[in-house]
Amino acid sequence: MAVQVDVPLAPTRRHRAAALFRAALVPALAILTALVIGAIIIWFSAPSNRGTRLEVVVAAYRGLFAGAFGSRVAIANTLVEATPYILAGLAVTVAFKCGLFNIGAEGQLFMGALASTTVGFTITGLPAIIHLPLALIAGAVAAGLWGAIPGYLRARTGAHEVITTIMFNFIAFRLVDYFIVSGPLRDRRASLPRTPFIQANAQLPRFVGPLEPANLTGGQEYRPLIVTTDPGWNIRLHLGFLIALLAVWIIWWLLNRTTTGFEIRTVGANPEAARYAGMSITKNFVLTMALSGALAGLAGAGQALGLERNMKSLFSSGYGFDSIAIALLARSNPIAIIPAAIFWGALNTGKGEMQALTGISSDLIRIIQALVIMFVAADQIVRWIFRIRQAHGEQMVFSRGWGK
Amino acid sequence: MRKLLTGMLMLVLLLPILAACGASGTGGDTTGTTGSSAAGASTAASGLPTPAETEAPSTAASTAASSPAAAASGSAATSASGSGLRVALVTDVGKVNDGTFNQFAYEGLQRAERELGVTINYVESQQPTDFETNLERFAAGDADIIIGVGFLMGDAMQKVATAHPDKKFAIVDFAYDAAPPNLKGLVFAEDQAAYMVGTMAALVSQSNTIGVVGGVQIPPVEKFVKGYEAGAKAQNPDIRVLSVYIPSFTDPAAGAEAARSQIAEGADVIFGAGGPTGSGGIEVAAREGKFVIGVDQDEYATTFKGGSAEGADKLITSALKRVDNAVFTAVQDAINGNFTNEVYVGTAENGGVDYAPAHDADEVVTAEIKAKVDEVKQGLANGTIKTGVE
Lengths: 404, 390
What we know:
The complex is a heterodimer. By secondary structure, chain A is mainly α. Chain A has 14 helices and 2 strands, in the order ααααααββαααααααα. Chain A has helices spanning 13-45, 53-69, 72-97, 105-122, 128-157, 161-182, 240-257, 259-269, 271-276, 281-308, 319-329, 337-358, 363-377, 379-386, and strands at residues 208-209, 226-227. Chain A has a two-stranded parallel sheet with strand order 1-2. The longest helix of chain A is centred in the first third of the chain and has 33 residues, at 13-45. Chain B folds into 2 domains: 81-188 and 326-333, Rossmann fold, CATH 3.40.50.2300; 190-321 and 357-382, Response regulator (Rossmann fold, 3-Layer(aba) Sandwich), CATH 3.40.50. Helices cover 51% and strands 17% of the residues of chain B. Residues 12-82 of chain B have low confidence and may be disordered. Chains A and B meet through helix 1, helix 2, helix 3, helix 6 and helix 12 of A and helix 1, helix 3, strand 2, helix 5 and helix 6 of B.
């Protein structure tokens, strides 16, 4: 937040650096504190057959790091994991800016993936240059509409978006279950409940890798941008990552450099003042939620078109929910979403290696993630531990309370 | 700023102190591991705790708990010269001690560690997107045999197995039409296990209405539900069988809700066939005084905590899938050079499926009922009884 406060005088480079430092300080210390507490938990839960407790702690964090960044494949996996987090985290951030709390990112993600996959496998014969954007847009539009409904309900009827978006999650899950498990979109030749594979032209291509054997992909030949048979370059990173980065830039630009963004932020800061200034609350709520939904939908579309190439009934487990944590960690700053998402992705990617090396339950990662969120949300704890004074105007409002 | 630095410094200083505590603590541990049973025995004999023992009762307890594992790995190390193969397990979404087929598969692996001298390792998956990375981690790493648990891993398994033709793979609950030569499916005749417990349910029920709480509607779960119904109907054609599928394996609350509504409709025997979701159902049903049936492994030991949980006397049996035997057999085949991609099917005939003893409910499950179910089991084994489930 502090980064974007308009300083009357032209900000010097030094001012900017100081502001950046202040903004990043609490999240960074929250992560540090969580990791230290995590180390203490490993200490007490260390299995006795893997060396001394200190060795286990060191091995656990070394494994976590190696699993996330230790090799080219590991780094790629971390970025792959971060991709949906960036987009969905951005979705939650946009809603925060308008004073809305979008807990429905998970459901919107499902709707986006469903629409993208459907367009991806039902339409045949289109060139990639048309088919891929079409599939992506379908996902964004479907999820955008799904998100806009709670926005409209909030603006017109006062139904709180926290309630409605949670409920819309369940509706989305059950709809997807219907379509994929028993309904018309299920691939009848597969024993797993999933849709057919998407057309090769609708895939978000991987950057580098081998050609995948067509017998594993329902007869489709998914071609990466650069084809190689080198197993060290068999990486899953796909074009969705660049789309996520692009989305970050677009949202930053939209929020900070356009009238629309100004209106969204004003409505978020003070709806009464915004109304008095002639801004439409309804329009901004609906627009923001649609935008938020579209971003979450893109996250789902990226998973379906870039990673799985089909959609399974148990498709995501919590990218949409974790993205709330990422938005908190990034303190609603679109740019900061990127490191926050990569951190989250690294924890998720590294935990397997950590468990294989030390036998520590991978639940430890969930504990560390929960601690990070606790320390970021209740930043007074971190400020008290590290004796940091709160700078004026640094508090932030994520969402308004009930009612109104 | 200065205060911040002081804070950081304190933290840095704290770490070595913790490390020092741990070094002495672990020193105690290692001696404790070898001597914990002796220490326990001496306490029991004298009845008076020695000062050393009162000093660290928690450490003693923790080492006592972990020492079997340590001992097991120790014996594995000595006998590892036998094969030296490394076997890795990737669980379905769940844990190696969650009381489902994940745990059963891990127990099969632990048996292989003890008896065959293989080295074992595992990673627990937390979400379906973990499957491929977790399998790939072991396939690209140092494992020789990789075992995956669960139907939902089917696609990922085939992909990784194809990419690593030099490694051997086995997957619980999945059979491929055309498996790669290094991939073995381990499946079970769930319908036969369910048929046996369905028979028992029909014999135990007083209200002539029984229920089943299924997990996600995938083939293994469907076979449980349909086999249960077939077994019950074969025993009593007029019985009413209420069945429901819940689109999650990890939602005990939804399972409990489903069980309650079946009880409200008059069911007095509930079969939970869907991992923790089903277990949630039978836990509630047992507490409300209805008879219940577990699934996959003997839920007396897991869900009902060896009889100490409330309602353990209501668990009349469990429909067993001997995943541990299947996994152990696959590892054994790999060591003996008999590993093929031919699907292993656990049936009543080869002991791959079975029903569990009644434990605390044995006055309800009378000798006649047991004889009747054993008769059915015989029939299933020698083929005179067919479940009629595809």
